[in-house]
Fold these 2 entries.
Entry 1:
Amino acid sequence: MLKLSLLEIIQRIEREETFHAVLEDYSFSIKIDDYVPYVCAAVHNGHHFSKDLWKNCWHTEHERLYEEDPHTGKMISGLHITLIAHDSRFEYDLNRAPETAIYETAWGKTLWKKPLSKKKKDRALQKHENFYQVVLTLLVKLEEMFGSTIFYDMHSYNWKRWDREVPVFNIGTSQVDQDKYRTIITQWQHILDSISLPIDQKVTCTINDVFQGNGYFLKYITSNSLNTLVLATEISKIYCDETTGRIFPEVVQSVQDLFKYYIKAHAHRFYDRHHLE
């Protein structure tokens, strides 16, 4: 893995180079093993929280981890193109628009003991902007090369906080053209609904059940693309003890192995169907 500046990452994409790099401030990493018409992202994977924010934050490290999406980056790491966030959503949320990306409250609790300085806010928002400059560059390049692309927007959620039965997988589609992409969405649901994982729960997948796909990452790509679909995909935290944070590595590995095969297969179905539109 390389450590590159924002400009160097953008230039490598524009030159269609393959590379694996972390941005020089370590806020996110990007891997391009091959230029293919599909991308996997984990925008809430990160846990790093700048040290100069620790004393000013009411939320403990455990409380922050509970609301993050640990190991979602590892789950997609076997795919050709990945975007993986390393900073915590509690510093700035990549799945929110810039004007709301810095929390004042989080899950019913005030986040900051004292208001953040303009300097700290500007630093966080610059990281947010840097990430989306890379997203846009990659999106434009892939649509230029292939005509259509598909992004898999990977998240996880705390299933034990629900007082009803909830699915292992949820696809949020409220912000996408469901008429145009109905077949592809249904195919993705059927794949996730039928996979086998080393867990006690029955694996099920629903659409717009616990989440509807209203995140900024999806909206940004949709509004800046000509022919790209984003599938916001949630996995319940069946791969860990969500209350303690203990990871079940055999489950994470199983998801990673299955995604490596099924995302590639599904993305090729998408491309065969939509690349000439």
Entry 2:
Amino acid sequence: MSPDVTAVGLLYAVRYSSVLALLNFFVLASLFWSGGGVLAAEARIAVAANFRDTAEAIATRLEADSPHRYEVIAGSTGKLASQILNGAPFDVFMAADRQRPQQLVDRGLAAAASQQIYAVGELGLWWPSSAGTPTLKALASLEPRSVCMANPAFAPYGEAAWAMLQNAGLEASWLEGVVRVDNVNLVAGLIAQGHARAGFVARSSLIAGKRQGTVVADDEEVLWFAEQAPIDQAMVLLTRAERNVAARHWVKQMQAAPIRELIQRDGYRLAGTQN
């Protein structure tokens, strides 16, 4: 082989290596946020069903303002907690109670320092055909199978509703006939579609339904239990995600003003605030 051919081959090899190095640089650079040099990451956010729409709005906001990407997985708090205990690959858990996040901390599955009340939900009794604002005792005039609630075994809103019914002094046989569904979001849909006469809903579910055009509800049709049964909704960063910058960013941003405004817009109070 002539020296000229060898030189040409070496030249092309050098150029090819340079091109590869440049491409690698741009690929790596694209993973950084130009605003702060933050490495992009992805996080899976497990959220209580009532908070699904709000979490998706938060994800959209954070993805626009950072390089991170978020996947929102919604379900009843109890079922999500069970999935986490069985190894589900979630990074942040946003429950509709305090107890289950604390249980995960106690088991070493969540970071204690990350615990916070991110929202205070509101439970209400929605009875569209009632004469004026409904009452708990008046529910006894309905067939129990025409009344629905979230399942108290899995859903904190259902647990609160069950406590309200028991305290109202309704007959145990009537209480046992009340329909229980997987999560509180389903209750508003069943009533709006005429499959139930009355039920225990989250204020956030009615707001979301009105926004989407699937729910028409007047305030006088709902008996709210803001003071009797506030729903403290807690969140934690799971220990598997303590090095996940996207998950840590999500947790930190829950205290940012734009995110807190989104939470309030969707019918929640913030911890330590009034209606």
